[in-house]
Amino acid sequence: MKRLVKVLLQNPGAASLALFARELLANPRAMGAACPSMPALASCMASRVPLNREGLIVELGGGTGAVTAALLRHGVPPWKLVVVERSPTLACHLHQRFPHVRIVQGDAAHLAQLLDHDRGRGIGSIVSSLPLRSLQPAMTRAISHQFEILLEPGGLLVQFTYDLRGARHRLLPRFRRLSSKIVWSNLPPARVEVFERE
Ligand SMILES: C[S@@+](CC[C@H](N)C(=O)[O-])C[C@H]1O[C@@H](n2cnc3c(N)ncnc32)[C@H](O)[C@@H]1O
Fold it and tell me: Separation of 41 CA from ligand 1 center, angstroms?
């Protein structure tokens, strides 16, 4: 593990790919993508996050950090950002890559519990790369329930999907879709959707 982290620090691009591939082989359903999001997709996700809102910005499924890096580039202050990642290996990688960001290793299905420490700060936006379509339906329901209880009315959820038909709203009954955009330059193309808690 230590050797792997050392390689990652020396060559983040190639090593991130290798790490992602290893996790994909170990847990394809939870990874839900063949490779990390490309810069255009990560930037599109980040650009949907308003910077002038109160509350935390919670990123779910940090992976190797493509979206985390884009959020920081977009101007999200590190102290406002919390990244949740289920895989211990990827969470460790995120710690190394973003030492000033709070990284929480755990399952987004228990998000309220994981964020207990931050109770009272409120959540302004959730930015999710979770593969809601490929996870077990019970898991997807549990995660969607967490979105409902943690976001106040008006709170934003930014989610991407490789399902270009954009059928996500069926998974999120208490959210209304504000915008939807396909990032064609990502491989494969992906749809970025913004939902508002009703
Ligand atoms: C499609 S990858 C996205 C990674 C990265 N954000 C990107 O865009 O390249 C999905 C990530 O979600 C994580 N993940 C899957 N299920 C999860 C869960 N229940 N809780 C937290 N993270 C989860 C996976 O380990 C993986 O890192």
Answer: 15
